[in-house]
Amino acid sequence: MCNRPNIVIVMTDQQRADLRRGCGYELDTMPFLDRWAEGGVDFARAYTPNPTCMPARVSMFTGRYSQSHRVRTNHNAEDALYTEDLLDVLKKAGYTTALFGKNHSHRKPEDFDRAKLFGHLGYEGEENTTPEEREFADFLRSTDHLETHRPSPGGVTVQHPYRSVSDALEFMDQMEGKGPFFAWISFAEPHNPYQAPEPYYDLFPPEALPPVKGKKEDLKGKGERFVWLRQCWEKVLGEEIDERILRARSNYLGMLRLIDDQMKRLTEGVRQRGLEENTIFLYLSDHGDFAGEYDLIRKGTELPDVLCHIPMIWRGPGIRSAGRVKDGYVSIVDILPTICDFLGIPVPFGCQGKSIRPLLEGCPPLEDRPLPEDRSPLGDRAFPEGGGAFCEYDRAFAESGYGGLYWEERDHLDPVTEGATNGWKNFDCLNTWTQCGQVRALWKDGYHIQLDMMGNGYLYHTDEDPSELRNLWDEPDYAQIRAALLAGLAAEMMKQTDVIPAPHYRYRVKVHPKGFWHAEDAAEDPGVRKGRDI
């Protein structure tokens, strides 16, 4: 047990995948992370299962999609359904567990062996003991979650990422010689309020930012809920909306650089303590941010690529130094089974992710797999014949919506009385209107298909159209691709049908111990027995 690796998960909140130079962005927002990623596996095709904070975080811990774990909004923590989660598994394996930063999961702080909390508005569990920390907390509370137009007070050391890293390093000092540890370092940034101290506040000036490709004129093609979202922001931000969105983007990018510097400080601290060679690092975000795309900020409706596509970098013992890879699609739900695989621990019953350890260790790239001459790459991968391990990583799946019909203007619901806004002084982009209904999406072979419960569909070639401005759904030349992707989406939705509760009499559920579907060594879960009552 003492030889098991330490595990450090660094999670940012609301970080878009593509705003790094290492991902092709014009500005050098995270130079350290780009260099650090070269020593590990930096997945170019990593996705969240739900672009909402709490559902995504519960998925990380349980390895389950939100329709199965039932935390489908930010207000359903008590509804979490699972057998065992990451915390349970690691504690049984002898790990000391710790949380530093934002929680917003189904787990309570006291469930961890150590916990120090930081939220968004300064008084969400923080221990603000100095005058500088209290001034900064008051500043955060005054923002009302909007962008700021002056540098944040107190400098870098009062910022929550700095304090979370300090707490984590102190915890590691206390753990010396005491066995393996798990540290979840959960930054509440670059999530709104969009703020940054000097020298980050004007590091990427608004007037020098590269233009976004999607504009408000494109919103109609994205759907009515996108149009409604922009109209709400126009009410809140007023006539200066475009300038204010630019300032929000500037602060967002400045915060990415601050996080980058703290990531450097963390990894150097781990190295100085002699822990690097026995620590698995995972850097990711729970979901993305519009960050100005389509003249929108924050998040909200549907499953666009900019909200679902996330950074995910693994580094540590047994993980290859591959840098940026497009070997396959990976998801937040894959974290639990992958850690279980590395530790030789059974995957909890009901886990819906799969181990991505083969990708981390360097199985042949998906693109190198020989294909029959009479099949296109898309067709072959959409309908695998045996397929082996390659087919396990050829798609990503996401979902959103808490159910029911779409709310419309004729329903006469008022955003103010519903609590979506404070007299239009602010706006909660996650609300009754943006979260209702059901939407499902699949990413595969460079395409993204989305379908809602009413049959409304969207198809994008994200490799060529990352801003998703051209909907190919009704274009005849893409009819065969649409059909193949719809079949893939339907298959994925059936695969993710929950196995909990297991049948109470005679029937046994057959699952692969690593979460695979196409592997030849599929086996029964030894934990599933006749009459098992979950």
Automatic annotation (TrEMBL):
Q: Where is the Sulfatase N-terminal domain?
A: 5-345
What InterPro entries is this protein classified in? Alkaline_phosphatase_core_sf (IPR017850), Sulfatase (IPR050738), Sulfatase_N (IPR000917)
* UniProt GO molecular function: arylsulfatase activity
Q: Which UniProt keywords apply?
A: Hydrolase
- Any Pfam family from its record, for instance, is Sulfatase
Q: Which family does it belong to?
A: Belongs to the sulfatase family.
Task: Give the matching PANTHER family.
Answer: ARYLSULFATASE FAMILY MEMBER, ENDO-4-O-SULFATASE
Name by which UniProt lists this protein: Sulfatase-like hydrolase/transferase
| The organism of origin for this protein | Candidatus Eisenbergiella pullistercoris
